[in-house]
Amino acid sequence: MGLPGTGSWKPHYARVFEDYSRVYAFADGDEAGRKLGNRLAEEVGALVISMDPTTDVNDAYLKYGASYLTGKVVQ
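RESULT FIELD:
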């Protein structure tokens, strides 16, 4: 699930993740991305993977591919 902006998360969205044992949230490295990551950690128990402060997730995906993002996940 992707969000069109950090302010678009609604509390009822958390229900989508109720049946998952593990949720990863890839957060942009800016302040808004970190805040959303923290909120997702609280509301859905997500493990947050943050980009560096100058990178957003979409740019990282387009530049480096999916393997770059999945490589950031620690099992």
